[in-house]
Design goal:
This protein has a single domain, classed as 7 Propeller (Methylamine Dehydrogenase, Chain H), CATH 2.130.10. 5% of the residues lie in helices and 39% in strands. The protein contains 2 helices and 32 strands. The protein has helices spanning 4-18, 31-34, and strands at residues 79-84, 94-96, 99-103, 108-113, 119-124, 134-136, 139-143, 148-153, 159-164, 174-177, 184-189, 194-199, 205-210, 220-222, 226-230, 235-240, 246-251, 261-263, 266-270, 275-280, 285-291, 302-303, 307-311, 316-321, 327-332, 342-343, 348-351, 356-360, 367-372, 382-384, 387-391, 396-400. Strands 1-32-31-30 form a 4-stranded antiparallel beta sheet, with no helix packed on it. A 4-stranded antiparallel beta sheet has the order 2-3-4-5, with no helix packed on it. Strands 6-7-8-9 form a 4-stranded antiparallel beta sheet, with no helix packed on it.
């Protein structure tokens, strides 16, 4: 039987192969690359042995939300396996102990075997799951649009406890130890405008901080003592991790609709006002503002020692100097870039609404490879044990290796 998903894949592949050159806004590929067929990879020197990251336990790969992988990008990648669901996948897949966990817009959380893609369990809720889950030990934590944060058993999917907020939850949680190292804490932002810290074992509230508007993004942890996040009230907040006391507020010109990225004292974020901003938390002021065209930056950026990388609805991936805020390079895809990039030692990997997964060099933005998955990608990719995992708007989880 021919399904809509099959028709969409055929249409996207046909469209990508038949797009006239006159419709492309900018020339991106070198003359040598222009003659290549779709999906062909550039010849590269063999990699040294990868470092072997085996887990991706929370959104953006770690508590600082930098998007850094700490490994080498896969070469000559192919789809190892797929798992199809019935609704869009908007959050990242997380991995621990060889188990992949993710949710979809129909309100189902799935656990799969990382090597094979075989289903281990599923748990269905009453509303959509847009948030990226987080894993700590044998517990999975995931927010739902029914206003609850759920704690599930990693091996069975059974609900261990739940915590109710006053509105939907679209952000993933962050994980940390408390000040004396005696207990694991969860950091949770909600659409009710409240940042909370909960005890991971029981779901008991430790403290809460109320803002003036919705919060969509996950809070970052800086130096083990500060929490940083932005909201739709156009404010970047810094709170004391131990107490929830306000450290500083930076007022901006536009809504902060996504998760921030940090590296040391530096924080960066995109806005609905067509900007990417950088700031130093200790100085409590914006260091620079990057503007290009009149398109919003909806996805979380990634940040390295030298560069901020951000996807934009102008169909481009932008590289920006971390120190000055000046543009370094841009790479044009054929669809809006609402997927957040992840950073390997030698490349960034990012998805696009055009159905492709792109790998680009960090310094010049040159194409290493692109893989046509045939389904629009909004979710950020994740990486564990050699697999790049990414979900699509058609509801497929792809494992690429």
């Amino acid at each position: 039987m021919i399904t809509w998903k099959f028709i969409r894949r055929v249409f996207l592949v046909g469209l990508s192969c038949g797009l006239p050159a006159c419709q492309q806004e900018e020339k991106q590929e070198t003359p040598e690359e222009q003659g290549k067929k779709e999906g062909e990879v550039r010849q590269e020197m063999p990699h040294p042995k990868p470092l072997g990251r085996v887990s991706w336990e929370m959104t953006r790969g770690g508590a600082d939300l930098s998007g850094q992988v700490g490994d080498l990008v896969p070469q000559n990648p192919e789809v190892s396996w797929t798992f199809e669901t019935d609704a869009p996948i908007l959050g990242e897949a997380v991995v621990s102990g060889g188990v992949v966990v993710f949710g979809n817009d129909q309100g189902v959380v799935y656990a799969l075997d990382l090597k094979s893609g075989a289903k281990k369990w599923e748990q269905t809720f009453e509303d959509s799951i847009e948030a990226t889950p987080a894993i700590s030990g044998q517990m999975v934590f995931v927010g739902c649009q029914d206003s609850f944060l759920y704690a599930l058993d990693l091996q069975s999917g059974k609900i261990q406890w739940k915590y109710e907020t006053d509105d939907k939850i679209t952000a993933g949680v962050n994980l940390t130890m408390n000040a004396d190292g005696s207990a694991k804490w969860l950091l949770l932002n909600g659409y009710d405008g409240v940042c909370r810290v909960l005890e991971a074992e029981s779901g008991a509230e430790v403290w809460s901080y109320e803002t003036d508007e919705y919060i969509n993004g996950t809070p970052a942890i800086i130096d083990g003592k500060w929490i940083v996040f932005g909201g739709c009230d156009r404010v970047l907040y810094t709170l004391d991790l131990a107490t929830g006391a306000e450290v500083s507020k930076i007022e901006t010109e536009a809504e902060i609709v996504s998760t921030v990225a940090t590296l040391g004292d530096f924080v960066t974020w995109g806005t609905y006002g067509n900007e990417v901003l950088g700031a130093e938390v200790s100085k409590a002021k914006v260091s620079w503002v990057y503007r290009d065209r009149q398109f919003p930056f909806m996805a979380s950026p990634a940040v390295s020692e030298s560069t901020v990388y951000a996807g934009c609805r102008d169909k481009k991936i932008h590289a920006i100097s971390r120190k000055t805020g000046k543009g370094a390079w841009k790479y044009k895809t054929r669809g809006r870039v609402e997927s957040a990039p992840i950073l390997f030692h030698d490349a960034l990997v990012c998805g696009s609404n055009d159905g492709r997964l792109y790998a680009l060099t960090l310094e010049e933005g040159e194409l290493l490879w692109k893989l046509d998955l045939g389904e629009s990608i909004v979710a950020a990719p994740s990486f564990a044990d050699g697999f790049i995992l990414v979900g699509s708007e058609d509801g497929t989880l792809f494992a690429v290796k």
